[in-house]
Amino acid sequence: MLSMLTLLKRLNPSTLRFPWPAAALALLTACSDPSADDEAGDAGDDAEAPELGDTPLPSCESAMFSFDQLVGELALPEPDVDYAIELYRGAPPDLSGESPTPGGSALQRWVREVGAQLGRVEAGVLLDDAAIEAALDLAASETGEARKLALLDVLGLLRNVALLDVRARLAIVADVLPDPQRDPSLLRGEWDQAWCVWSGVLAPLASEVDVATNEGWSDAIVGAFESGYAGIVGPEQPWAPDEFATKPAKQVIEKGSFGVVARALIERAEQAQAGADPFAAREASGLFVLIEDRIQGRNTPAIELIEPMLAGPPEAIDPASIETELAVAFVKRARKYCDEALLADALGSADAAKGVDEGILYTRIILPQM
After folding, report:
1. DSSP code string of 6-49
2. pLDDT for 290 beyond 60
3. What would you measure as the largest C-alpha separation in the chain, in angstroms?
4. Are the CB atoms for 303 and 309 separated by under 8 Å?
5. Whole-angstrom Cα distance, residue 112 to residue 128?
6. What is the mean pLDDT of residues 324-332?
7. Interatomic CA distance for residues 92 and 327, integer angstroms
8. Per-residue pLDDT, 92
9. Is the pLDDT of residue 87 over 60?
């Protein structure tokens, strides 16, 4: 039975009124109260600013609804594989009428859009979409435990796409340069899209972790989404975002999400080991993919330890060992960002401020190990 990691690594790439009279208008203009203009201007200044999530995103909302339905289906002892496939693939294309429909689902279109935007393509094949399709085909050909394991691979792949999407969209806003020709609504749209995806895919994990740990990950991340959104319109010019708001907020959301994933991974590993549960082990394996790039280069040998452990017999999983190996990588990252925040040429800058939050968040992740 191929795991999600194997599907990703072995995938063969070959296989989105009436007009007023002029005299009346002149009379109204001549008799108007000058203070009315001031009051109108004041009213304009007091106009309610957009709030987080105000951008209409029907496609994202539809995709997240399908994801939620898939999660609910996978919670059942015997998920309906046909329903799971329908949630992802949707209806087939209909090219017979005068208005052809492309088919597919909002969920699949979102995966393909993210893959194309991030360049997750090889030989013309969108890798994430192809891996999900392969896992669905495998699930359809299997029965019992093997079928559910394949469907859990789909869940892991979708979570990975979600975190990549969130990180990329937040970076677009946090790294942008001032531009008087740019409408702030464009950046709000990117931030709102990240919020939509995070709320649909990763927020349930954060809530689950908070119930178990009482560490407040959800409040910290939601607060960062709100403060970063408020900073998209800068204090001096609307087209110059407040870097002291957007840059740190991006880091709190991103590193906070890594913390949530790490906590959920350890919880699934403990569940798998205690109950010899292959489903918890497979979900843990999928979660590890989300933070693997955080381990690479900081504690690379841990990858060769953790991946086969999660793919092996569930009762042989060592959650404490996994937690320690993750902590080794995270403490190195915490030290790096704390050091960068104190560099003479960065001290007092927005980059230093974001470095402080990066270091703090990585430190929060490893606190249970200290």
Report:
1. HHHHH--TT---PPPPHHHHHHHHHH--HHHHHHHHHHHHTSPP
2. yes
3. 90
4. no
5. 8
6. 93
7. 46
8. 73
9. yes
DSSP state of 104: B
What tokens were used for 87? 């949630």
Residue 350 and residue 244: Cα distance in Å, rounded? 5
Question: Looking at residue 289, what is its pLDDT?
Answer: 98
At 305, is the pLDDT very low, low, confident or very high (cuts 50, 70, 90)?
very high
- Residue written as token pair 């907020």: 249
Instruction: Provide the b/e sequence for 28-64 (b: ≥16 CB within 10 Å).
Output: eeeeeeeeeeeeeeeeeeeeeebebbebebebbeebb
The CA-to-CA distance between both ends of the chain, in Å, stands at 38
> Residue 351 — pLDDT band, cuts 50, 70, 90?
confident
Scanning the structure block, which residue is given the tokens 């990180």?
167
| pLDDT of res. 368 | 78
Using CA atoms, how far apart are residues 149 and 269, in angstroms rounded to an integer? 15
> What residues does 121 pair with on adjacent strands?
126
| 80-90 b/e (C-beta count within 10 Å ≥ 16 → b) | ebeebbebbbb
Q: Which two tokens stand for residue 91?
A: 């209806």
Q: CA-CA distance, 154 to 133, in Å (whole number)?
A: 8
Question: What one-character-per-residue DSSP string does 252-305 give?
Answer: HHHHHHHHHHHHHHHHHHHHHHHHT-HHHHHHHHHHHHHHHHHHTTTSTHHHHH
Q: Which residues contact 220 (CB under 8 A, 6 or more apart)?
A: 252, 256
Gap between the Cα atoms of 156 and 23, Å rounded: 70
